[in-house]
User: Fold these one by one.
Assistant:
Number 1:
Amino acid sequence: MCGILGCISNEDIVPMLLNGIKRLEYRGYDSWGLAVVEDKIKLIKNVGNINEECLNRLELKGSTGIAHTRWATHGGVTRENAHPHTSCGEEIAIVHNGIIENFQEIKRSLLAEGHKFMSQTDSEVIAHLLEKYYNKFKDIKKAILATVKRIKGNFAFLAIFQKDSDMIVGARKDSPLVIGIGKNKIFLASDVLSFIEHTDKVIFLDNLEVVIAKKDLLKIFDFKGKEVQKSVTQVAWEAYDVSKKEFSHYTLKEIYEQTNTLKSSLCQDQIKLNEFCNSIKSAKKLFITASGTSFHAGLLAKYLFSKISKVYCEAVLASEFNQIIEWVDKDTIILAISQSGETADVLDAVKKAKEKGAKILSIVNVVGSNLDRESHLTLYLNCGPEIGVAATKSFTSQLALIYFLAFTMINEYIGINKLKRLNECIDLIFKQKDKIVEIAEKYKNSNDFYFIGRSIHYPIALEGALKLKELSYIHAEGMAAGELKHGTLALIDIGTPVVVLNPKDQTYCDTLSNALEMKARGAKIIGISNLNNDVYDDLILLPEIDELFYPVIEVIPLQMLAYYLAINRGADVDKPRNLAKSVTVK
Ligand code: M6R
């Protein structure tokens, strides 16, 4: 996934572009670039994080421009492959987010026509196609429509033209593109976040739409060229607060935000919530689908819907959804869970299910995202932008909303007292920071970690392991505690750290036996429990809460442990290597 941003204004837009794409680095951060058009197109690109110094040296200025932050998919991380890409005559520059699936075939035919390519990317074909069709039609609208007709895959792109220095054109198919209408400024971007301090007035472009933007004109067309009228939405500024505040990393800030975000995730429109619950309850077949951390929330939803609401469902990894597609029909409800609403596997699963007539319910954080727009009904997490690549606050917000649904289905409500207690418990866990830092110091040189839990603690064991892997790069495995003896026990050695999720509920004794078994084989046991026991070498004490709610609070020390282990190992916490915040490729 990449981030794109364009701006037209009366003033120099380079600082705005630069700040804007810094905000989009959560979408990709291996290289970046920007281009402005005055009498000519001038551009700068670089490998690595966005670097202001470099720009100052170049003294790039202009009032129309486009910018890009890249996550490499086609072509390595090199300056040549960084965007913007230009046409042969450098009279057109483009930035692109997505994948052009048929780029090889297009590139071959353009090469045969004499076009010269400078990069190994799929994106560059867009610049050459625009050049080809602009030369042919001498009309920008015709050129862009011919271009989108020719390319397959998913894309959002922006282009500037030397011939018209106050214009940006764009198009989208299956990748987001939003327009910000500011005072004397127009923005086109992957995400509102990139321009929110300049305007809160937004037009969400729909799939298969193109836009031609000038200082004093904004036209939107469908891919057949028919003009479409769009309404302007006013978005809430607070929902896009992206300051790091006093925290050293976004990830840490987001961990500490969880007492507030739990509250906001429960602020739901009652009518929508009831409709959501009724659909789930009346479903003949119910499948939950998601990826990564959101899948762990989905797995817990399966347990809670069954335990609390007496609703049976299956949780299916979005990347595996195709394997069960034959069971999906018009009587099926799909519950898709995604922070970004842009995960390619989730979108693919949802589209296929829709084709079979299923109704799509979704739980999403990013309003206006593709999943939101593909769904028949969406509930929002309302947890604000999550910038750290590792999902933290979005996970607990997903959990809170899932509990809310499970109880609403049986006409019970998570009242203010329950929420207050959850927040008190989380605060009590934050107070154990020194203990968690000490554990992180003790195990910083471990090569393998195991996380175990039964029943509703099993999804949290999976989540604890995922957090540790992605933040600290330590190998970790999360598993159902009962599965240990079926193989993993062979890996337990002297000093192997095992995190045991074991609050006092009906799983307590069995999980304790598993902890003892591992201890007998030399493991170091880190207990996450409200009850101390000699088996634990270290204990993070869970405050008392109704036992069904332990998953929401027990994940907090796991997030903190992963964070401090990552810090001890010098990892880039907010931007773990090789990972992008939203995975928009399959
Ligand atoms: O935006 P989504 O919730 O759909 O993202 C799904 C996964 O890519 C995501 O949860 C990923 O596993 C996180 N980096 C985990 O922290």
Note: The domain at 429-586 is CATH 3.40.50.10490 (Rossmann fold).
Number 2:
Amino acid sequence: MILAILLQMRGIDVVVLERGTRVDVLSRIRAGIMEPGIVQFLRDSGIETRIDQLGRPRNGSRIVWQDRPDVVIDVKRWTGAEMMAYGQTYLTEDLYAQADRLGTQLFDDVTELAVTGLQGNRPQVAFKTPDRAVEITCDYVIGCDGGRGHCLGLIPEAARQVHERIYPFGWLGIMVEAPPLDDVTYIHHSEGFALAAQRGPNLSRYYVQTPLDQGVEQWPDVRFWQTFLTRAPKDVADAVVTGPSIEKALTPLRSRVVEPLRWGRLFLAGDAAHLVPPTGAKGLNLAINDVRLLSQALIAHFEEGDDGLLERYSTDALARVWAASDLSWRLTRLLHVFPGEPSFDDRLRQFDYDRLLESEDRQRALALDYAGING
Ligand code: PHB
């Protein structure tokens, strides 16, 4: 949607296809932490959001650890910039509103998608909506259709590599109508990870690490809160305002990077191109960075006939993707308990945390990675 709006503002024709309905899309709950550079890009680029009204600027986040002092991921101190707590769902609402104002062509509830001609100059896209069948001829197809979307499969296996790590646990997340903690708080405990996050002055998001063989129905609120409050140190547990969940979902954790991000006239962006575990909240930031690069590249193509940036898109986007994949993997390994892991791994984890506690250089490096700077 961001890419569509950016192109449309330059008079480049765009058609957006969405498998779900608008109601489906707006009910998807994702992480809500944005990097300073991404927030600035949205402000500068003409994307109209309510970030400065509804977002909560944050100095950074906190790690709390059973029987050890806290570490503050102090983005403000080390970079001078602030992170922004702004739920992805709010951003999606903003984008629909702007696309509606611009009259962007948007097809919802799309089925039977067929894309052909990607190695030629005029790809064809055919699909159905509940009331009609449509065929489009276009210049480029941008696959922004998520980790289980159609577009990755359009690239022959011989023409791509998929690098992947599947984690042996998931996150169970709940939404609660209650004031959140002041800081996004990552919790490590010998029984597993937990996280307290924010959505608004009276809306909180909490997660606990869970085994993959248990569904949401095995996690009534009482069990969720018992688990969360056991993992949280006393001062955190005392500060949390519990309440009934208004939403509950299980997310499996996965890292994935596809290389390259281009096949002929197809470009992949966002989750279609790469997945990160939610630890570090990089998914939305990476997706926006991809379309930032793609919008510049497509504008250079259409306005100046210059394909240099399009040629470089995959390499440029992947540099940032690998940096974020590294951060997400390191934070995931540091903060979670891996079922059946040797005690060696846990000792290394404790050692790693102690080194972080002792070294301002390491805290600074973590803050820069967390803020998406130098990536
Ligand atoms: C969230 O706001 O849901 C959130 C925040 C930080 C994370 C992951 C998720 O690392």
Note: The mean pLDDT is 97.
